[in-house]
Amino acid sequence: MHSIQLEIFRQIKGIGSASGIFSNAVQLYIVGDNSAFLNQYDLSSNRLEKIQILFDQPLTRKENIPKSLKPDFEVLCHSENTLYILGSGSTLNRNRLIAYDLNTKKIKAQNVNKTYEKMRQVAGIDLKNFNIEGAIFTGKQWLLFNRGNGQEGKNGIFTLMGNDLTVVSEIKFSPVQLPHINHVESSFTDAIQVGKNIFFIATAEDTQSTYHDGEILGSFIGSIDLQNLKLSFSYKIPGQHKFEGIALFKQEKDRLEFLLCEDRDTAELNTTVYKLSLTL
């Protein structure tokens, strides 16, 4: 039996709608789904730096981009020395891929609309049920996690071979059934790789829309075997949080510490980062 402990790790002013997080134990990187910036937060000095990642008008330099125009950056994925920021694809203008090199500080922007279209065709998912909320990049393949909060409840993992997300040819979709709270099935909100396992978070939100928000019933943390993509376990996280980002903070033999960020679906520029300790 696993045990879970949840506590507040940091409260940060200046960040809103946090949807993705990465930690290298020195700094936190946090992305919001409606912001033109990547946030870099120094854990020793508590200093927040804004890195502009969108430069097209009228989105330039905005912290709260209107819902109809927002890029919906739901993914912050780390591989080697690069952070990959990815739009959800839940509307046709939410298809940006931003690569930020942590060493050179260079930013590369691309469009993954064609890849998203192929993914929808392979899985038999229409635009109203397509919502990418997590990603893992191994260097040889991508795993993209579809949040099944549309009417069809299509939770699942896309496997895309190759290292360039804009020109993939081989795509596979693996449906995953996630735990319920009351009558509502939870749906993927983020995932990371730890060794041979995937650790994911999922939220039960009482809505049948990838666009409109609903009542938050709570979130889960769980594990999926990386090889066969089968669910190993899942546990309810205390409280009724809408956790949308997960990062590995510390790894020990029988204990993992994760950092979680929460999207409160408000325009307020304040975010709370939580630490979740999982005893294995």
Protein model, in words:
4% of the residues lie in helices and 52% in strands. The N and C termini lie close together (8 Å). The radius of gyration is 17 Å and the shape is globular. The longest helix has 11 residues, at 113-123. The chain has 1 helix and 22 strands. It has 280 residues and is mostly beta strands. A 4-stranded antiparallel β-sheet has the order 1-22-21-20, with no helix packed on it.
- Give me the Rg, rounded: 17 Å
Number of helices: 1
End-to-end distance, in Å?
Answer: 8 Å
Instruction: Give the strand line-up of the largest sheet.
Output: 1-22-21-20
Helix content: under 10%
- Shape descriptor reads globular
Percentage of residues in strands:
over 45%
Query: Secondary-structure element sequence?
Result: EEEEEEEEEHEEEEEEEEEEEEE
How is the biggest beta sheet arranged?
4 strands, antiparallel
Please count the beta strands (DSSP E, at least 2 residues each): 22
Query: Low-confidence stretches at least 5 residues in length (pLDDT < 50)?
Result: none
Write a compact overview of the structure shown:
The protein is mainly beta and 280 residues long.
Question: Key terms for this structure?
Answer:
280 residues; mainly beta; four-stranded antiparallel beta sheet; 22 strands
Secondary structure elements and pairings:
Elements: E1 3-13, E2 18-23, E3 27-32, E4 37-42, E5 48-52, E6 73-79, E7 82-87, E8 96-101, E9 107-111, H1 113-123, E10 132-137, E11 141-146, E12 156-161, E13 171-175, E14 180-181, E15 184-185, E16 187-194, E17 197-206, E18 215-225, E19 231-236, E20 243-251, E21 255-262, E22 270-279
